[in-house]
Design goal:
Blueprint (H helix, E strand, L loop, with lengths): L1 E4 L5 H12 L3 E6 L2 H11 L3 E5 L5 H9 L3 H4 L4 E4 L15 H28 L3 E6 L12 H20 L5 E8 L7 H5 L4 H6 L9 H12 L9 E4 L16
Parallel strand pairs: 1-2, 1-4, 2-3, 4-5, 5-6, 6-7
Helix pairs in contact: 1-9, 5-6
The protein binds NADPH dihydro-nicotinamide-adenine-dinucleotide phosphate and 2-hydroxyethylsulfonic acid (8X3).
């Protein structure tokens, strides 16, 4: 299969790219860091095609996709919209507007732009699978998630609305909604490079790992074509609900 994965320079995307190439697929892997893409290319060889661009930049997306062999571009079987980020954990009144804009432009606009480029080819050949990486943050509010959680709620609802539009077509859409996952750069990015603070998020807890997410993706890809897995919400056993809080007068 031909698989386009955004955000392969770290975390989930990197592991999914490695596993997909090892499983015999051709992977087009994207990210902004050319050096990291080069390292993965050196590791994975001919069946990995790196494309360096920012998903929030539509002109850059079009230029990068335009550089691909057109037969490959029009025959992408699986699009994995994984690139995304959280920035900050402050309450909404203290959050940075730059962080908010970057999250919206990456997690929602970027994902929509990628989908808009690739979906018509899938519909034209009446075959394809889109996997969107959302988050439990899109389902359950928590302190400081404000815009990050809202962008992921957008991703989840966009996935479901895509399915609605695809009635009668053999194009499938799955929304993956992971909870706490370690072994990625997610918290290092969220805390703007404060690696000590980032590492505390994962202290003394058995978290989900990139390999777990990659296993789910490989399972999804292998499902028979008459099956659509709508949503996969997944948490570590150590994480659960009950986040509602009450402010009491003392
Ligand atoms: P990482 O920070 O490890 O990886 C994020 C990837 O996204 C990198 O490859 C990065 O590449 C890419 N990326 C970020 N911004 C852009 C951009 N503007 N344009 C292109 N690529 C971009 O994070 P994770 O692997 O943990 O996260 C992957 C996805 O999973 C994200 O959407 C995240 O929100 C979601 N998620 C993560 C969870 C977690 O706890 N880790 C849980 C639930 C969901 P580069 O910097 O080279 O551009
Ligand atoms: C990442 C999971 O709980 O840090 O989307 O928001 S969480």
């Amino acid at each position: 299969m031909n698989i386009l994965i955004t955000g392969v320079t770290a975390g989930f995307g990197r592991q999914i790219a490695i596993d997909c190439v090892k499983a015999g697929h051709i992977v087009i892997g994207t990210g902004r860091r050319a050096d990291k893409l080069g390292e993965i290319k050196a590791e994975l060889g001919d069946n990995f095609i790196p494309l360096c661009f920012d998903v929030s930049d539509l002109t850059a997306i079009k230029s990068a996709l335009g550089s691909l062999d057109q037969t490959l571009l029009t025959n992408i079987d699986v699009l994995i919209n994984n690139a995304g980020l959280a920035l900050g954990l402050e309450s909404a009144d203290k959050a940075s507007i730059d962080d908010w804009q970057t999250m919206i432009q990456t997690n929602t606009l970027g994902l929509v732009q990628m989908t808009h480029q690739i979906l018509p080819y899938m519909v034209a050949k009446n075959d394809g699978l889109i996997i969107n990486i959302s988050s439990t943050a899109g389902n359950y509010p928590y302190f400081g998630a404000n815009v990050y959680g809202a962008t992921k709620a957008f991703v989840t609802q966009f996935s479901l609305n895509l399915r609605a539009d695809l009635l009668g077509k053999n194009v499938r859409v799955t929304n993956i909604e992971p909870g706490l996952c370690g072994g990625t750069e997610f918290s290092n990015v969220r805390f703007h490079g404060d690696d000590e603070r980032a590492s505390k998020v994962y202290e003394n807890v058995e978290f989900i790992r990139p390999q777990d997410i990659s296993n789910m993706v490989l399972w999804l890809i292998d499902q028979p074509k008459h099956i659509n897995i709508n949503r996969l919400e997944v948490m570590p056993v150590a994480q659960t609900f009950a986040g509602l809080t009450v402010a009491r007068d003392l």
